[in-house]
Amino acid sequence: MQKHVKPALPKIDCPVVDRCGGCQIQQLSYDQQLAKKQTEVNKLLSKFAKVEPIIGMTNPYYYRNKIHTTFAMNRKGQVISGKYQAGSHHVVPIDSCLIEDQRADEIVVSIRQMLRSFKIKPYHEDSRSGLLRHVLVRTGFQSGQIMVVLVLGSPVFPSRKNFIKALLEQHPEITTVVLNVNNKKTSMVLGDREQVLYGKGFIEDTLCGKSFRLSPKSFYQVNPVQTEVLYSKALDLAEFTGRETIIDAYCGIGTIGLIASDRVKQVIGVELNQAAVKDAINNAKRNQVKNVFFHQADAGDFMLQIARKKQRVDAVLMDPPRSGSTEKFIQALATMKPKQVVYISCNPVTLARDLASLARKGYQAKRIIPVDMFPGTNHVETIVSLVRKR
Ligand SMILES: C[S@@+](CC[C@H](N)C(=O)[O-])C[C@H]1O[C@@H](n2cnc3c(N)ncnc32)[C@H](O)[C@@H]1O
């Protein structure tokens, strides 16, 4: 493994490393974490092409721009806030987390301290009593904007105006507050109903020189520093000439496609989540990008439609969720015969499965580059560029 840039900070010890389910390898030095991830990616992917050295962070702490905290009552009847213990719904109290934006953690502590005077109790899933279930905070790394989402077990939020007023007095840096109602027995954080209590209901941020709007439910990469590294690397591997029509599959709020739009003729984005597509269309407008078109659909169904229309596609950028892509998607892709594919994956296991499938359809991996988007955890992101064999 080549030497990566050394962390600027010495190792910081986490006091709840043995109990919290958020990180799995925080007890290792950053060098050891990177070596572990490199070994895992090598094991799964080196049969497709040489795996290049993992790109690590200079400072692997406090990187997360999205945090969610759960609230509960401890045995002494005190309200606690923190993360679930791995594999359970037991809340481990945490005020400051080594991988989370520190401004976001401070806001959560303030909210917890306010609960008593507002007579708000944590929501209890089994008895369906209490009110506050989770707090989600999203921070704009470049913009400094902050969104607070209060996830309640009921839409009835007494003294909501005074609560928001008191929160904003303590944290004037908050730019929007959204109420989300989740009264289901579920491990999903957010429910279906939403109401904007303060501000615009979304925040803005800048990535690779483009501005993006994010709603509470839209996917947005959680590590803004490494996302710029990831996207720049992925687009460099694609070596566009400016004449290509490309597909940005699983496009989220349109980040990769909009950043690629300056380098190609046309981008067609597809995404399942309706809120994310709305954000993506808005993001194209706010950046005055006119050569990008977004569609809300299952990516596999959409690829099939494009293949049936025999529309020319020169390259496919794909960034599916952890479960990976589908046979339907890959089959349709093979029918379209794009010259190149750039696959960004957050799960090397499903990536290996899909690369095998792409290889059977004639797509050969050329370069494989792991990027550490999630220090402290087992997770690793990987970019693979593939070309169609003639
Ligand atoms: C890993 S995220 C990538 C998003 C985006 N490319 C980015 O970098 O921010 C995966 C995205 O795939 C979307 N998704 C999940 N299943 C999908 C499907 N069957 N068809 C289309 N999009 C899907 C999710 O909503 C999510 O936005």
TrEMBL record:
What's the protein here called? 23S rRNA (Uracil1939-C5)-methyltransferase
Q: Which residues form the active site?
A: 346, 346 (nucleophile)
Q: Which SUPFAM superfamilies match?
A: S-adenosyl-L-methionine-dependent methyltransferases
Family matches, as PROSITE patterns = SAM_MT_RNA_M5U, TRMA_1
Q: Which residues form a coiled coil?
A: none
Binding residues for S-adenosyl-L-methionine, per the UniProt record? 221, 250, 271, 319
Could you tell me the keywords of this UniProt record?
4Fe-4S, Iron, Iron-sulfur, Metal-binding, Methyltransferase, S-adenosyl-L-methionine, Transferase
List the molecular function annotations (GO) for this entry. Answer: 4 iron, 4 sulfur cluster binding; rRNA (uridine-C5-)-methyltransferase activity
Span of the secretion signal?
none
Gene3D superfamilies xref list: 2.40.50.1070, Vaccinia Virus protein VP39 (3.40.50.150)
Q: Name one GO biological process term.
A: rRNA base methylation
